[in-house]
Amino acid sequence: MENTYPDGDNYVCADCAHEWPIVAVAAAGDEDAATVKDANGNLLADGDDVVLIKDLKVRGSSQVIKQGTKVRGIRVVGGDHDVEGKVNGSAMMLKSEFLKKV
């Protein structure tokens, strides 16, 4: 993301206040570090359809994306906001923890 900055041993996202270590932590077990899972633990892949599990505020706007909104044809990308898709015609970056695979 363009609004992240280093703070000590962590990166910080200025948009959502999420912090993660600068040094990548090795994935436990045989999981691939590039895997992205939804809120229920299902693996997400490019082209999947997902549904929001809670209302989300849109940064820089008074708009709210309602729970149950379907996002079709997602793209898995790296970073904290690890899913990209179109919501109501607008491209948005979303966190997989707020999504459920359809």
CATH superfamily of the domain at 34-101: SH3 Domains
Helix content: under 10%
Radius of gyration: 14 Å
Give the total of beta strands: 13
Sequence of secondary-structure elements:
EEEEEEEEEEEEE
Main β-sheet description: 3 strands, antiparallel
Mean pLDDT: 85
Question: Any low-confidence stretches, pLDDT <50, length ≥5?
Answer: 26-33
The helix count comes to 0
Structural class determined from secondary elements = mainly beta
Could you name the CATH class of the domain at 34-101?
Mainly Beta
**What's the overall geometry?**
globular
How far apart are the first and last residues' alpha carbons, in Å? 27 Å
The CATH architecture category of the domain at 34-101 equals Roll
User: What is CATH's topology name of the domain at 34-101?
Assistant: SH3 type barrels
Share of residues in strands:
35-45%
Q: Which sequence of strands runs across the widest sheet?
A: 1-2-3
Task: List the keywords.
13 strands; 3-stranded antiparallel beta sheet; mainly beta; 102 residues
Briefly characterize the structure.
This protein has strands at 4-7, 10-13, 19-21, 36-37, 43-44, 50-52, 56-57, 64-65, 70-71, 75-76, 83-87, 90-94, 99-101. The chain has 102 residues and is an all-beta fold. A hairpin with a 2-residue loop joins β11 and β12 (90-94).
Describe this structure in words.
The protein has 102 residues and is an all-beta fold. It has a domain at 34-101: SH3 Domains (SH3 type barrels, Roll). It is built from no helices and 13 strands. The strands form five sheets. A three-stranded antiparallel β-sheet has the order 1-2-3, with no helix packed on it. The protein is globular and about 40 Å long. 11% of the residues are buried.
